[in-house]
Design brief:
By secondary structure, the chain is α/β, with parallel strands linked by helices. The chain contains 15 helices and 19 strands. Strands 11-12-17-16-15-18 form a six-stranded antiparallel β-barrel. Strands 2-1-3-4-5 form a five-stranded parallel beta sheet, with helices on both faces. It has a four-stranded parallel beta sheet with strand order 7-6-9-10, with helices on both faces. The longest helix is centred in the middle third of the chain and has 20 residues. The protein is elongated, with a radius of gyration of 25 Å.
Length: 464
Protein backbone atom coordinates (compact mmCIF):
# COMPACT_ATOMS: atom_id res chain seq x y z
CA UNK A 1 0.00 0.00 0.00
CA UNK A 2 1.28 3.47 -0.88
CA UNK A 3 1.86 6.01 1.84
CA UNK A 4 -1.04 8.38 2.45
CA UNK A 5 -0.23 11.90 1.32
CA UNK A 6 -1.46 14.56 3.75
CA UNK A 7 -0.90 18.26 4.22
CA UNK A 8 0.48 19.67 7.46
CA UNK A 9 -0.58 23.16 8.47
CA UNK A 10 1.15 24.78 11.48
CA UNK A 11 -0.76 27.79 12.85
CA UNK A 12 0.85 30.71 14.69
CA UNK A 13 0.42 34.45 15.34
CA UNK A 14 2.53 37.27 13.90
CA UNK A 15 2.27 39.20 17.16
CA UNK A 16 4.70 36.77 18.79
CA UNK A 17 7.20 37.03 15.94
CA UNK A 18 7.13 40.82 16.23
CA UNK A 19 7.92 40.54 19.93
CA UNK A 20 10.59 37.82 19.66
CA UNK A 21 11.36 35.84 16.48
CA UNK A 22 12.90 33.02 18.57
CA UNK A 23 9.81 32.60 20.74
CA UNK A 24 8.54 29.97 18.33
CA UNK A 25 11.69 27.82 18.32
CA UNK A 26 10.62 25.21 20.92
CA UNK A 27 7.16 24.96 19.35
CA UNK A 28 8.67 24.34 15.91
CA UNK A 29 11.01 21.71 17.37
CA UNK A 30 8.00 19.92 18.87
CA UNK A 31 6.17 20.11 15.56
CA UNK A 32 9.12 18.46 13.82
CA UNK A 33 8.98 15.58 16.32
CA UNK A 34 5.27 15.12 15.64
CA UNK A 35 5.83 15.12 11.89
CA UNK A 36 8.46 12.41 12.26
CA UNK A 37 6.10 10.30 14.38
CA UNK A 38 3.36 10.61 11.78
CA UNK A 39 5.73 9.69 8.96
CA UNK A 40 6.82 6.60 10.89
CA UNK A 41 3.17 5.49 10.92
CA UNK A 42 2.79 5.60 7.15
CA UNK A 43 1.97 9.20 6.24
CA UNK A 44 3.69 11.19 3.52
CA UNK A 45 3.74 14.75 4.84
CA UNK A 46 3.39 17.75 2.55
CA UNK A 47 4.44 20.69 4.70
CA UNK A 48 3.16 24.23 4.31
CA UNK A 49 6.02 26.36 3.01
CA UNK A 50 6.18 28.22 6.30
CA UNK A 51 4.62 28.45 9.73
CA UNK A 52 1.41 30.27 8.85
CA UNK A 53 0.32 33.46 10.62
CA UNK A 54 -1.36 35.72 8.05
CA UNK A 55 -4.16 35.23 5.56
CA UNK A 56 -1.82 35.26 2.58
CA UNK A 57 0.32 32.53 4.11
CA UNK A 58 -2.70 30.34 4.88
CA UNK A 59 -4.08 30.89 1.37
CA UNK A 60 -0.77 29.83 -0.17
CA UNK A 61 -0.67 26.71 1.99
CA UNK A 62 -4.24 25.75 1.06
CA UNK A 63 -3.42 26.13 -2.64
CA UNK A 64 -0.35 23.94 -2.22
CA UNK A 65 -2.38 21.22 -0.52
CA UNK A 66 -5.16 21.33 -3.11
CA UNK A 67 -2.65 21.25 -5.97
CA UNK A 68 -0.88 18.29 -4.37
CA UNK A 69 -4.13 16.34 -4.07
CA UNK A 70 -3.61 15.45 -0.41
CA UNK A 71 -6.08 13.07 1.24
CA UNK A 72 -6.31 15.15 4.44
CA UNK A 73 -4.88 18.29 6.03
CA UNK A 74 -3.57 18.04 9.59
CA UNK A 75 -3.63 21.30 11.55
CA UNK A 76 -1.47 21.97 14.59
CA UNK A 77 -1.61 25.12 16.65
CA UNK A 78 1.91 25.92 17.77
CA UNK A 79 0.34 28.69 19.81
CA UNK A 80 -2.77 30.80 19.63
CA UNK A 81 -3.68 31.86 16.07
CA UNK A 82 -6.54 34.26 15.24
CA UNK A 83 -9.10 32.31 13.24
CA UNK A 84 -10.02 35.05 10.79
CA UNK A 85 -6.53 34.79 9.33
CA UNK A 86 -7.00 31.10 8.44
CA UNK A 87 -10.72 30.54 7.96
CA UNK A 88 -10.96 31.34 4.23
CA UNK A 89 -8.06 29.02 3.47
CA UNK A 90 -9.55 26.26 5.57
CA UNK A 91 -12.92 26.59 3.87
CA UNK A 92 -11.20 26.31 0.48
CA UNK A 93 -9.57 22.95 1.23
CA UNK A 94 -10.67 20.01 -0.89
CA UNK A 95 -9.53 17.48 1.74
CA UNK A 96 -10.93 16.82 5.23
CA UNK A 97 -9.40 18.72 8.13
CA UNK A 98 -7.86 16.66 10.94
CA UNK A 99 -7.15 18.81 13.99
CA UNK A 100 -4.17 17.60 16.03
CA UNK A 101 -4.83 19.20 19.42
CA UNK A 102 -1.68 18.61 21.44
CA UNK A 103 1.07 20.42 23.36
CA UNK A 104 4.67 19.52 24.28
CA UNK A 105 4.43 19.10 28.06
CA UNK A 106 2.53 16.26 29.71
CA UNK A 107 2.25 17.81 33.19
CA UNK A 108 1.91 21.57 33.62
CA UNK A 109 0.62 22.08 37.16
CA UNK A 110 4.04 22.82 38.64
CA UNK A 111 5.00 25.01 35.65
CA UNK A 112 1.86 27.10 35.38
CA UNK A 113 3.36 30.10 37.16
CA UNK A 114 6.34 30.15 34.82
CA UNK A 115 6.18 31.86 31.46
CA UNK A 116 8.22 29.09 29.79
CA UNK A 117 5.59 26.54 30.71
CA UNK A 118 2.72 28.60 29.35
CA UNK A 119 4.53 29.76 26.21
CA UNK A 120 4.82 26.33 24.64
CA UNK A 121 1.47 24.89 25.75
CA UNK A 122 -1.30 27.37 25.00
CA UNK A 123 -2.34 26.32 21.52
CA UNK A 124 -5.57 24.73 22.68
CA UNK A 125 -7.49 28.00 22.73
CA UNK A 126 -6.38 28.60 19.16
CA UNK A 127 -7.96 25.24 18.36
CA UNK A 128 -11.15 26.41 20.05
CA UNK A 129 -11.21 29.67 18.07
CA UNK A 130 -10.64 27.86 14.76
CA UNK A 131 -13.10 25.02 15.38
CA UNK A 132 -15.81 27.43 16.45
CA UNK A 133 -15.57 29.18 13.08
CA UNK A 134 -15.39 25.90 11.17
CA UNK A 135 -18.55 24.79 12.94
CA UNK A 136 -20.27 28.11 12.23
CA UNK A 137 -19.48 27.77 8.52
CA UNK A 138 -20.59 24.14 8.32
CA UNK A 139 -17.10 22.86 7.46
CA UNK A 140 -16.55 19.34 8.86
CA UNK A 141 -13.44 18.64 10.91
CA UNK A 142 -12.11 15.68 12.89
CA UNK A 143 -10.46 16.45 16.22
CA UNK A 144 -7.78 14.30 17.87
CA UNK A 145 -6.71 15.48 21.34
CA UNK A 146 -4.07 14.30 23.75
CA UNK A 147 -0.37 14.18 24.52
CA UNK A 148 1.73 12.57 21.81
CA UNK A 149 3.61 10.24 24.17
CA UNK A 150 0.92 9.52 26.75
CA UNK A 151 -2.19 8.92 24.68
CA UNK A 152 -3.30 7.46 21.38
CA UNK A 153 -3.55 10.85 19.70
CA UNK A 154 -0.94 10.11 17.01
CA UNK A 155 -2.55 6.78 16.15
CA UNK A 156 -5.97 8.47 16.11
CA UNK A 157 -4.67 11.17 13.78
CA UNK A 158 -3.26 8.55 11.42
CA UNK A 159 -6.58 6.68 11.59
CA UNK A 160 -8.47 9.79 10.50
CA UNK A 161 -6.02 10.20 7.63
CA UNK A 162 -6.64 6.61 6.58
CA UNK A 163 -10.38 7.32 6.62
CA UNK A 164 -9.71 10.35 4.44
CA UNK A 165 -7.67 8.20 2.06
CA UNK A 166 -10.64 5.82 1.64
CA UNK A 167 -12.81 8.86 0.90
CA UNK A 168 -10.35 10.05 -1.72
CA UNK A 169 -10.16 6.60 -3.31
CA UNK A 170 -13.95 6.33 -3.51
CA UNK A 171 -14.34 9.79 -4.99
CA UNK A 172 -11.79 8.83 -7.66
CA UNK A 173 -13.22 5.37 -8.33
CA UNK A 174 -13.29 4.11 -11.91
CA UNK A 175 -15.64 1.13 -12.10
CA UNK A 176 -16.03 -1.27 -15.00
CA UNK A 177 -19.39 -2.89 -15.66
CA UNK A 178 -19.67 -6.12 -17.65
CA UNK A 179 -23.24 -6.99 -18.57
CA UNK A 180 -24.92 -4.02 -16.90
CA UNK A 181 -27.18 -4.29 -13.87
CA UNK A 182 -29.26 -7.28 -12.80
CA UNK A 183 -32.83 -6.74 -13.99
CA UNK A 184 -35.20 -6.11 -11.09
CA UNK A 185 -32.50 -5.87 -8.41
CA UNK A 186 -33.10 -2.40 -7.02
CA UNK A 187 -31.58 -1.98 -3.57
CA UNK A 188 -28.08 -0.90 -4.67
CA UNK A 189 -29.09 0.51 -8.07
CA UNK A 190 -28.23 4.13 -8.80
CA UNK A 191 -27.79 6.04 -12.03
CA UNK A 192 -24.33 6.77 -13.38
CA UNK A 193 -25.13 10.46 -13.12
CA UNK A 194 -25.96 10.23 -9.44
CA UNK A 195 -22.90 8.06 -8.76
CA UNK A 196 -20.67 10.66 -10.40
CA UNK A 197 -22.40 13.61 -8.72
CA UNK A 198 -22.86 12.28 -5.19
CA UNK A 199 -19.79 10.05 -4.86
CA UNK A 200 -17.44 11.09 -7.65
CA UNK A 201 -17.09 7.66 -9.25
CA UNK A 202 -17.10 7.04 -13.00
CA UNK A 203 -18.55 3.93 -14.69
CA UNK A 204 -17.26 2.26 -17.87
CA UNK A 205 -19.20 -0.37 -19.83
CA UNK A 206 -17.86 -3.32 -21.75
CA UNK A 207 -19.58 -3.43 -25.11
CA UNK A 208 -19.36 -6.25 -27.70
CA UNK A 209 -16.76 -4.39 -29.76
CA UNK A 210 -14.67 -3.75 -26.64
CA UNK A 211 -14.89 -7.42 -25.61
CA UNK A 212 -13.93 -8.55 -29.12
CA UNK A 213 -10.91 -6.22 -29.18
CA UNK A 214 -9.57 -7.32 -25.81
CA UNK A 215 -10.24 -11.03 -26.33
CA UNK A 216 -8.21 -10.81 -29.54
CA UNK A 217 -5.24 -9.52 -27.54
CA UNK A 218 -5.11 -12.63 -25.32
CA UNK A 219 -2.82 -15.31 -26.78
CA UNK A 220 -2.69 -19.01 -26.05
CA UNK A 221 0.70 -18.35 -24.43
CA UNK A 222 -0.97 -15.82 -22.13
CA UNK A 223 -3.51 -18.45 -21.10
CA UNK A 224 -0.79 -21.07 -20.54
CA UNK A 225 1.15 -18.66 -18.33
CA UNK A 226 -1.94 -17.82 -16.25
CA UNK A 227 -2.79 -21.50 -15.77
CA UNK A 228 0.76 -22.09 -14.56
CA UNK A 229 0.36 -19.28 -12.02
CA UNK A 230 -2.93 -20.81 -10.90
CA UNK A 231 -1.24 -24.18 -10.35
CA UNK A 232 1.45 -22.51 -8.24
CA UNK A 233 -0.93 -20.45 -6.08
CA UNK A 234 -4.15 -22.45 -5.83
CA UNK A 235 -5.46 -26.00 -5.68
CA UNK A 236 -6.69 -26.79 -9.20
CA UNK A 237 -9.29 -29.57 -9.52
CA UNK A 238 -10.54 -28.98 -13.04
CA UNK A 239 -11.74 -31.62 -15.50
CA UNK A 240 -13.29 -29.30 -18.07
CA UNK A 241 -10.04 -28.02 -19.48
CA UNK A 242 -11.48 -26.18 -22.47
CA UNK A 243 -13.97 -24.34 -20.25
CA UNK A 244 -11.07 -23.48 -17.92
CA UNK A 245 -9.04 -22.06 -20.79
CA UNK A 246 -11.95 -20.02 -22.11
CA UNK A 247 -12.79 -18.66 -18.63
CA UNK A 248 -9.13 -17.72 -18.21
CA UNK A 249 -9.09 -15.99 -21.59
CA UNK A 250 -12.20 -14.03 -20.61
CA UNK A 251 -10.55 -13.10 -17.31
CA UNK A 252 -7.34 -11.91 -18.98
CA UNK A 253 -9.35 -9.78 -21.44
CA UNK A 254 -11.20 -8.26 -18.49
CA UNK A 255 -7.86 -7.59 -16.75
CA UNK A 256 -6.37 -5.86 -19.80
CA UNK A 257 -9.49 -3.71 -20.17
CA UNK A 258 -9.30 -2.65 -16.53
CA UNK A 259 -5.59 -1.91 -16.74
CA UNK A 260 -5.89 0.18 -19.90
CA UNK A 261 -8.65 2.28 -18.36
CA UNK A 262 -7.01 2.55 -14.91
CA UNK A 263 -10.07 1.01 -13.28
CA UNK A 264 -10.15 0.61 -9.51
CA UNK A 265 -13.07 -1.83 -9.47
CA UNK A 266 -15.31 -3.97 -11.64
CA UNK A 267 -18.64 -5.76 -11.53
CA UNK A 268 -19.89 -8.63 -13.68
CA UNK A 269 -23.55 -9.53 -14.20
CA UNK A 270 -23.46 -13.29 -14.68
CA UNK A 271 -26.87 -13.28 -16.40
CA UNK A 272 -25.96 -11.00 -19.30
CA UNK A 273 -22.18 -11.00 -19.74
CA UNK A 274 -22.67 -13.07 -22.92
CA UNK A 275 -24.62 -10.18 -24.45
CA UNK A 276 -21.49 -8.04 -24.37
CA UNK A 277 -19.37 -10.74 -26.00
CA UNK A 278 -17.70 -12.54 -23.09
CA UNK A 279 -17.28 -16.29 -23.75
CA UNK A 280 -17.39 -17.52 -20.12
CA UNK A 281 -18.17 -16.24 -16.65
CA UNK A 282 -14.63 -15.43 -15.37
CA UNK A 283 -15.11 -16.33 -11.70
CA UNK A 284 -11.39 -16.86 -10.97
CA UNK A 285 -10.50 -13.44 -12.36
CA UNK A 286 -13.20 -11.84 -10.20
CA UNK A 287 -11.37 -13.27 -7.18
CA UNK A 288 -8.00 -12.18 -8.54
CA UNK A 289 -9.30 -8.64 -8.96
CA UNK A 290 -9.97 -8.59 -5.22
CA UNK A 291 -6.64 -10.25 -4.54
CA UNK A 292 -4.85 -7.43 -6.39
CA UNK A 293 -6.39 -4.90 -4.00
CA UNK A 294 -9.07 -3.69 -6.40
CA UNK A 295 -12.83 -3.69 -5.97
CA UNK A 296 -15.44 -6.16 -7.11
CA UNK A 297 -19.15 -6.77 -6.58
CA UNK A 298 -21.55 -9.13 -8.27
CA UNK A 299 -24.62 -8.61 -10.44
CA UNK A 300 -23.73 -5.23 -11.92
CA UNK A 301 -23.43 -3.49 -8.54
CA UNK A 302 -21.16 -0.57 -9.38
CA UNK A 303 -21.89 1.14 -6.04
CA UNK A 304 -20.52 -1.67 -3.87
CA UNK A 305 -17.73 -2.52 -6.32
CA UNK A 306 -16.39 1.01 -6.01
CA UNK A 307 -16.78 0.89 -2.22
CA UNK A 308 -14.83 -2.38 -1.99
CA UNK A 309 -12.12 -0.89 -4.21
CA UNK A 310 -11.83 2.22 -2.04
CA UNK A 311 -11.60 0.17 1.16
CA UNK A 312 -9.08 -2.19 -0.44
CA UNK A 313 -6.87 0.73 -1.43
CA UNK A 314 -6.25 1.43 2.27
CA UNK A 315 -7.16 -1.85 4.01
CA UNK A 316 -5.75 -4.90 2.17
CA UNK A 317 -8.01 -7.35 4.04
CA UNK A 318 -11.25 -6.38 2.29
CA UNK A 319 -13.63 -8.21 -0.01
CA UNK A 320 -17.17 -8.39 -1.40
CA UNK A 321 -19.79 -10.57 0.30
CA UNK A 322 -23.46 -11.21 0.98
CA UNK A 323 -25.33 -12.34 4.10
CA UNK A 324 -26.82 -15.61 2.87
CA UNK A 325 -28.39 -17.71 5.60
CA UNK A 326 -29.06 -17.43 9.35
CA UNK A 327 -28.19 -20.01 11.96
CA UNK A 328 -30.70 -18.92 14.60
CA UNK A 329 -29.47 -21.49 17.10
CA UNK A 330 -25.87 -20.22 17.09
CA UNK A 331 -26.58 -16.52 16.42
CA UNK A 332 -24.41 -16.58 13.29
CA UNK A 333 -24.78 -15.74 9.61
CA UNK A 334 -23.45 -17.53 6.56
CA UNK A 335 -21.49 -15.11 4.36
CA UNK A 336 -21.23 -16.40 0.83
CA UNK A 337 -21.44 -15.80 -2.91
CA UNK A 338 -21.25 -17.87 -6.10
CA UNK A 339 -17.46 -17.77 -6.36
CA UNK A 340 -16.18 -14.25 -5.80
CA UNK A 341 -14.02 -13.39 -2.79
CA UNK A 342 -10.50 -12.22 -2.10
CA UNK A 343 -7.97 -15.06 -1.94
CA UNK A 344 -6.05 -12.88 0.54
CA UNK A 345 -8.70 -13.75 3.15
CA UNK A 346 -8.80 -17.50 2.56
CA UNK A 347 -8.33 -19.80 5.54
CA UNK A 348 -7.02 -22.53 3.25
CA UNK A 349 -5.56 -22.44 -0.24
CA UNK A 350 -8.43 -21.53 -2.61
CA UNK A 351 -9.70 -24.22 -4.98
CA UNK A 352 -10.41 -23.77 -8.69
CA UNK A 353 -13.10 -26.27 -9.73
CA UNK A 354 -15.51 -27.04 -12.52
CA UNK A 355 -18.65 -24.95 -12.21
CA UNK A 356 -21.87 -26.11 -13.89
CA UNK A 357 -23.44 -22.95 -15.29
CA UNK A 358 -26.70 -22.61 -17.20
CA UNK A 359 -27.61 -18.98 -16.48
CA UNK A 360 -26.60 -17.73 -19.93
CA UNK A 361 -25.48 -18.97 -23.33
CA UNK A 362 -21.82 -19.20 -22.23
CA UNK A 363 -22.41 -22.54 -20.52
CA UNK A 364 -20.24 -24.26 -17.96
CA UNK A 365 -17.21 -22.50 -16.50
CA UNK A 366 -14.81 -22.79 -13.57
CA UNK A 367 -14.84 -20.96 -10.25
CA UNK A 368 -12.55 -20.26 -7.32
CA UNK A 369 -13.87 -21.19 -3.89
CA UNK A 370 -12.46 -20.43 -0.46
CA UNK A 371 -13.37 -20.01 3.19
CA UNK A 372 -12.95 -16.75 5.07
CA UNK A 373 -10.31 -16.95 7.77
CA UNK A 374 -11.31 -16.29 11.36
CA UNK A 375 -10.87 -12.84 12.89
CA UNK A 376 -12.49 -9.56 13.85
CA UNK A 377 -14.25 -7.99 10.88
CA UNK A 378 -16.87 -5.43 9.96
CA UNK A 379 -19.53 -5.63 7.29
CA UNK A 380 -19.72 -2.27 5.49
CA UNK A 381 -22.91 -1.62 3.58
CA UNK A 382 -23.85 1.41 1.50
CA UNK A 383 -27.52 1.95 0.74
CA UNK A 384 -28.76 4.72 -1.57
CA UNK A 385 -31.75 6.61 -0.23
CA UNK A 386 -34.00 9.07 -2.05
CA UNK A 387 -31.87 11.77 -0.46
CA UNK A 388 -28.27 10.78 0.23
CA UNK A 389 -26.86 7.46 1.41
CA UNK A 390 -26.92 5.40 4.59
CA UNK A 391 -23.76 3.52 5.50
CA UNK A 392 -24.45 0.63 7.85
CA UNK A 393 -21.50 -0.79 9.82
CA UNK A 394 -21.80 -4.21 11.41
CA UNK A 395 -18.85 -5.18 13.60
CA UNK A 396 -18.45 -8.80 14.56
CA UNK A 397 -16.26 -11.84 14.12
CA UNK A 398 -15.61 -14.52 11.51
CA UNK A 399 -15.61 -17.82 13.39
CA UNK A 400 -13.11 -20.64 13.18
CA UNK A 401 -15.81 -23.25 12.86
CA UNK A 402 -18.34 -24.58 10.40
CA UNK A 403 -15.65 -24.47 7.71
CA UNK A 404 -14.20 -27.97 7.79
CA UNK A 405 -11.94 -28.75 4.87
CA UNK A 406 -14.21 -29.68 1.99
CA UNK A 407 -17.24 -27.69 3.12
CA UNK A 408 -16.31 -24.85 0.81
CA UNK A 409 -15.90 -26.80 -2.41
CA UNK A 410 -19.12 -25.50 -3.97
CA UNK A 411 -19.22 -21.84 -2.86
CA UNK A 412 -17.26 -19.22 -0.99
CA UNK A 413 -18.36 -19.10 2.64
CA UNK A 414 -17.67 -18.00 6.20
CA UNK A 415 -19.65 -17.79 9.43
CA UNK A 416 -20.07 -14.30 10.85
CA UNK A 417 -21.17 -13.61 14.42
CA UNK A 418 -22.46 -10.03 14.81
CA UNK A 419 -22.15 -8.17 18.10
CA UNK A 420 -25.92 -8.36 18.67
CA UNK A 421 -28.17 -11.42 18.94
CA UNK A 422 -29.08 -12.42 15.40
CA UNK A 423 -32.80 -11.49 15.46
CA UNK A 424 -32.02 -8.02 16.85
CA UNK A 425 -29.18 -7.58 14.38
CA UNK A 426 -31.21 -8.54 11.30
CA UNK A 427 -34.10 -6.36 12.43
CA UNK A 428 -31.85 -3.34 12.96
CA UNK A 429 -30.05 -3.92 9.64
CA UNK A 430 -33.16 -3.93 7.51
CA UNK A 431 -34.82 -1.16 9.50
CA UNK A 432 -31.87 1.01 8.40
CA UNK A 433 -32.37 -0.06 4.77
CA UNK A 434 -29.18 -2.09 4.37
CA UNK A 435 -28.83 -3.73 0.94
CA UNK A 436 -27.99 -7.37 0.24
CA UNK A 437 -24.52 -6.57 -1.15
CA UNK A 438 -21.72 -5.48 1.19
CA UNK A 439 -18.03 -5.06 1.71
CA UNK A 440 -16.25 -7.02 4.43
CA UNK A 441 -13.09 -5.62 6.01
CA UNK A 442 -10.93 -7.20 8.70
CA UNK A 443 -9.16 -5.60 11.66
CA UNK A 444 -10.28 -1.98 11.25
CA UNK A 445 -11.53 0.16 14.12
CA UNK A 446 -15.20 0.96 13.56
CA UNK A 447 -14.53 4.59 14.54
CA UNK A 448 -12.23 4.84 11.53
CA UNK A 449 -14.92 3.49 9.21
CA UNK A 450 -17.47 5.85 10.77
CA UNK A 451 -15.15 8.76 10.03
CA UNK A 452 -14.87 7.69 6.39
CA UNK A 453 -18.65 7.63 6.09
CA UNK A 454 -19.02 11.06 7.67
CA UNK A 455 -16.29 12.45 5.40
CA UNK A 456 -18.33 11.24 2.43
CA UNK A 457 -21.45 12.92 3.81
CA UNK A 458 -23.25 9.62 4.44
CA UNK A 459 -25.61 8.97 7.32
CA UNK A 460 -23.64 6.45 9.37
CA UNK A 461 -25.26 3.79 11.55
CA UNK A 462 -23.32 1.21 13.57
CA UNK A 463 -25.19 -1.91 14.66
CA UNK A 464 -23.69 -3.53 17.74
Amino acid sequence: MCKIKVGYLPLYIKLYDDDDPHYRDPMVAYMEKLVKMLEEQGLEIVMADEVCRLKSEFDAAAKKFNDAGVAAVITQHLAYSPSLESIDALLSLNAPIVVLDTTPDYGLLSMAAERDGIDANHGIHGVQDMCSLLKRHGKPYYLCAGHALHSGVIAETVAMCRAAAVRQAYQNARVGSVGGSFTGMGDFLISDERYRKDVGAEVFYMTPDVAERYLAQVTEADVDAELALDAAQFTVEVNWQEDYRMATKAGLALRKWMEDNRMTACTVNFLTLDECGMPKMPFPECCKILGRGLGYAGEGDVLTAGLVGALSAVYPAATFTEMFCPDWERDVLLLSHMGESSPRLAKWKPIIKDCPFNYNSCGNTVAMYSCFREGKATIVNLAPMNDGFTMVLCPGELLDEGMEDGAYRYATQGWFKPNLPLPAFLKAYSMEGGTHHSALVYDVDVAELEAFGRMMGFDVVTIG
